[in-house]
Amino acid sequence: MSATRSAAPASGHGDGPAEPATARRSPALTGRVRVPGDKSVSHRALIFGLFAEGITRITGLLEGEDVLNTAKACAALGARVTRRGPGDWEVEGAGANGLSTPAAPLDFGNSGTGVRLMMGAVAGQDVTATFDGDASLRRRPMKRVLDPLTAMGVEIVDSAEGGRLPLTLRGSAGTKAITYETPMPSAQVKSAVLLAGLGAAGETVVIEREATRDHTERMLAHFGADVRVEPHGAHGRRIALKGRPTLVAAPVDVPADPSSAAFPLVAALIVPGSDVTLTDVMMNPLRTGLITTLLEMGASIEVVAERTEGGERVADLRVRHSRLRGVEVPPERAPAMIDEYPVLAVAAAFAEGVTAMRGLSELRVKESDRLAAVADGLAACGVAHEVQGDDLLVTGAATVKGGGPVATHMDHRIAMSFLVLGLASEEGVSVDDVAFIATSFPTFMPMMRALGAVIA
User: Fold this and answer.
1) Is there a contact between 180 and 191 (Cβ–Cβ < 8 Å)?
2) pTM of this prediction?
3) Which residues are catalytic?
């Protein structure tokens, strides 16, 4: 497929029929696989290609629905976006001041990352755009992004109740540079402010008390922007961007997504006899909180052939079945593994003792209320657990009953996490809908089956 300037936005699965599935106790998982490209980097590569002068060549792009919707949005805003082959894309940029008002609403399906980053991208342009998504995305809060953007001069023309989608923004080429301290750790909010800062005269500064994934900062520098990153406090950073740079097209090689790798990784740890190698996994230190935690739990994860590719650290991971033990996961680790807590809870179900995951408030505003969804799923599978405020405590056992059906709430990570649990449970696990897995990991089912997983 290719997306052109007139490409229509894609719809999400919100109105489609549910696709239930069941994972059953499986034999040892074995093999060597590469999970799809990193979703965060894929979104950003397309968006920076939109702003850049020249043609940006992207290899390894994740071709899940979330990223494809961002590609269509870039085309609707004036870029020429072409798919040359599997994971191989080109973006002919519209340039710093070349974005155009789209002819139709930009539909981001299920993608909070895509819609929030693109709001920032539009903010510094003389463009009016309507943002929309599926039923799940329409429930998610946008105020956290709108607050700093309106402070920079963006006008909210229209929105649903509470500043939710669908909403229409009118950007401005005269965006004001601001200094903004994020009230919660959020790479999406930080990135939206920095993208808006591309159109501002002066220096836009974002201060975060807890460092979040830094792909936007890295890509700003990769495309030629003047961006400085300094430590701030015990765990935070100060990011300063000089406004109105000329971004120049640059190649992007997207590494394998550590958030997607988490599912076969945990599956190999909990299914007896397993020995799986995951190749080319991004090892950015702001994305490896799950690996750090699993190693503390006693996981056998061997980091092989660590190297740098496209400005990001990558490595192969050899993962073998392990006896895990419960640990305390500190709240300051949350930004480095926010998407991985559901599958960590699955690993914790098989660990000896209690795994206490602290400070999970951000999980309540993801594709679903993930904290509630994980707790309900654990209950459906007979796993002892407790939610204490924003903390989740899971008490593991040598054997896990399984069961279901687990309600996924239109959330791809809930669906994949509990299918992984089913592979090592006594009775298997059924989930009510796997359609949304396509948003981030379209090859999940066939890849897991190729490793030996029994999923029907």
Assistant:
1) no
2) 0.89
3) 339
